[in-house]
Design goal:
Largest sheet: 7 strands, mixed
Shape: elongated
Order of helices and strands: HEHEEHEHEEEHEHHEEHEEHEHEHHH
Strand content: 15-25%
Strand order of the largest sheet: 1-2-3-4-5-6-7
Radius of gyration: 24 Å
Oligomer: single chain
Helix content: 25-40%
Number of strands: 14
Length: 321
Amino acid sequence: MNQISIYIEETLHKRTSISKYEDLSVLPLHLRNGYDFYLLTLQNIECLLARPKDQTNLTILRRQAGQLKKLTGLDIVLCLDDIRKYTKEKLLSEGIPFIITGKQLYMPFLGIALSKNDAREIAYTEKISFSTQRLLLTAIYQGWTQTTLTEAAGILGVSKMSVTRNFDDLQALGLDLVRTIGKTRCFFPGGSRRDLWDAVFPHLRNPVARQYRLGMRIETGKFKLGGMSAICHYSMLNDNSYTVYSINKRNAKALDIARLPLIPDNESPMMVVQVMNYDLDYRDAAAIDPLSAVLSVSSDDKNDPRVEAAIEEILEDCLYD
C-alpha cells in the first residue's frame, strides 16, 4: 500500500491517508478472503481500496465492486497491478474506479481522471472542452435520448477513451447528463433539445480560436461561412459588406494566414477568416453548424435587435421538432 499511497500523492499533488479497513464484519466470507482492504482518505473524502489477492476476470471484478459499494456504503477503487487493455477500457466505459500503480488512476467520483503521462483534474468546472462541446451539439442536432459511450464514439469518429473524457467533463459540470444504465455509461439528457440547450448553454464556449481581418481577398475554395455570415445564411438577416469564413487549424497552418496583411478593428476588411477549435459535420455544408455560429457571435452583435431576432429564428429551427 505504501507504493499506492506515494503514487496517488505524486499524481494528485495532495496528501492522502491510508489505513487498514477494519469493518470487515459487513462483508461475506468470499469477499473478505478475496481482497485486501484499505481506507483511503483524500480531502475529507473516504473510499475503499480493494486489492484482489488472485487474478480475477472482468465479470467478477465488476460484480464484486458493486457488491462492496452496496455493503460498505463507500466508493470502491480496485487496486490492480496490471490489466488487459480490453478490461481497462471496459472499466473506464462503465465508470468503475481503479488504480494501476505507476500507470493510471481513475476515480470519477472525485471528479478526477488522471494518468502518469497526461495528468488532468476535472473537479467542478463552469466551462467544458471543445471536444465535449462538439459531443453536446451533435447530441442536440441528432436528438440523442440514451446513447452509450460506444455508440457516441462511433457517431463522433473518436476513440472510446476520448468519449470517456467527455463524459467525465459533463459530470464535472454537476449536470445529470451521464448515467450508468445496467453496466454501461450513457448520455441521457432526459428532456427535449431545448431543455438540453438551456441546461448546457452557460457552459458552452466561443468556438473561434483566432480571427483574421484581412486587407485582401484570398481563394476561399472549400471554406465554410462563419460568424455573422453563417447567421445570415441560416436566417433572413442581410450580411455585412464583407464575408466571414471559417476554417480549421490545419488549413490555417497550411495557408500561413498569420502572415497575410491585416486590417485594424476600426476599419472595414475585405474579408474575415475565423479559425475554429473544432469541426462539426452538419447537413448544410455551406456554413458552420448554426449553433456554433450562434456561439461565435460577439456580445456587441447580439445586442443588435436584428441579430437577436435572427438568433431566435435559428434556435427555433434547431431546437424544436
